[in-house]
Design a protein that fits this description.
Length: about 190
């Protein structure tokens, strides 16, 4: 028996926490398909006032976070809030799918306008994990077909994202365990 095992069986070394260093202030773009855990991750690591959620903005303008007819107005609100927060040099998390360069461009433009760094956190979880999570969402379900469309869009955009130079840092999370083990550390970027 080695020093790492006991009578109950082999022990596993604890998974070392990955560290995501984020400048404060900054704009943090969460990128991933529905059901990948973006909102849960955001709620675990950031305050409610730091998170600007497209679903929450959709609910604010239409009383329903799933009302797709309110998407344009919801994203206008996301952009408006981000603009006001960055003007005040406040760290802000954009909780939306952010799957394409065009979707991210407006937020990167605001980051540049206010000279605030941008960070991308990419949730590249297995598709079936996202499907299972989506099925547990009750009345907020997106459905497998929509998830497949999002996944195709994600796969096209993630290579562009990896090559993008607009981000101070890029963190790719590939499993629920990696998401759970990630610690967010804020670094003063000056206010």
């Amino acid at each position: 028996m080695t020093a790492d095992a006991d009578a109950s069986g082999p022990s596993r070394a604890p998974q070392a926490a990955a560290v995501l260093r984020v400048p404060d202030p900054s704009v943090i773009l969460l990128v991933g398909i529905a059901g990948c855990g973006k909102s849960t991750f955001a709620e675990r690591h950031f305050t409610a006032t730091e998170i600007v959620s497209s679903d929450r903005c959709r609910a604010l303008v239409a009383d329903d976070p799933t009302d797709q007819s309110a998407t344009g107005d919801a994203f206008s609100l996301v952009t408006f809030i981000l603009d006001k927060r960055l003007k005040r040099r406040r760290l802000t998390v954009v909780d939306a799918t952010n799957l394409t360069r065009d979707q991210r461009r407006r937020y990167l433009g605001l980051a540049a306008k206010y000279d605030v760094p941008a960070v991308a956190v990419v949730f590249d979880l297995p598709f079936e994990v996202c499907v299972a999570r989506d099925e547990r969402r009750g009345d907020r379900r997106v459905g497998r077909d929509a998830l497949q469309r999002q996944r195709r869009e994600f796969e096209r955009g993630v290579d562009q994202l990896r090559r993008a130079s607009e981000y101070r840092s890029l963190k790719i999370l590939s499993s629920p365990e990696e998401m759970e083990a990630t610690a967010v550390v804020r670094e003063d970027a000056g206010r």
